[in-house]
């Protein structure tokens, strides 16, 4: 215990001998330097130097009416409260001064952060959902949704609106869900499951999950990137709405798996008017 107390007092700026002298005076005050030297095990040649430093630091007081003077320990609670106030005052000063020379907070929003590992990515998604307040756009596979759906449900209970593009089949009781019926084809073509998330027009995350278990993601507060992710999900939803309304005609015009529609490198020359399904 004595060793741990000595280490703690060292963090307050006391040397080993100063700590030993103060701890000894706490147990028995009103002693001379000579008596303290014997009680604390400090050489007589060093005791008065330690006492003078303790006096200067406000850890002890001296009764100089006696000869030789006697020394008293200042109550530890009083000392600790003084150090606490000084420490907090220093933090307040640093906060103001460092803030004045630091980059503006919005400058940090331009950074793009990288995350590796499935667990870390899912933790970040939970964090985004738990801090969301207004609106979430999400494109996700059922494999990842199953692990974050409680966070989604919690956001929905707070009144957060959600538009979700879902790859795969999964029962969902929150948000507006748009099922993507080409999930198997997309997985074969892409070789991975991709996730896109945009929340409150303030933050976005793009995740990649391979079938072999590799996972990485990027996230940012950058406004342009946030808008890009939001637009990507919105356009996907618009396409799914059109497919739901005109699926037979789209299959005839562009193929059952929409080959000609998805091949953006070839301009579609054929024109025809689609009629809504009856």
Number of structural domains? 2
CATH homologous superfamily classification of the largest domain: Endonuclease Chain A
Name the strands of the widest sheet in spatial order. 4-10-9-8-5-6-7
Rough outline? rod-shaped
Structural class category: alpha+beta
Total helical segments: 11
Order of helices and strands: HHEHHEEHHEHEHEEHEEEHH
Helical content band: 40-55%
Low-confidence stretches: none
CATH top level class name of the largest domain: Alpha Beta
The major pleated sheet works out as: 7 strands, mixed
Overall pLDDT, averaged? Answer: 87
Number of strands: 10
- Give the end-to-end Cα distance, rounded to a whole number of Å: 84 Å
CATH architecture of the largest domain: 2-Layer Sandwich
- Give the C-alpha Rg: 34 Å
In what range is the share of β-strand residues? Answer: 15-25%
CATH topology of the largest domain: Endonuclease, Chain A
Can you describe what's shown?
- This protein has 278 residues and is an alpha+beta fold.
- The protein folds into two domains: 2-96, Arc Repressor Mutant, subunit A, CATH 1.10.10; 111-262, Endonuclease, Chain A, CATH 3.30.870.
- It is built from eleven helices and ten strands.
- The strands form two sheets. Strands 4-10-9-8-5-6-7 form a seven-stranded mixed sheet, sandwiched between helices.
- It starts with a helix and ends in a 16-residue tail after the last helix.
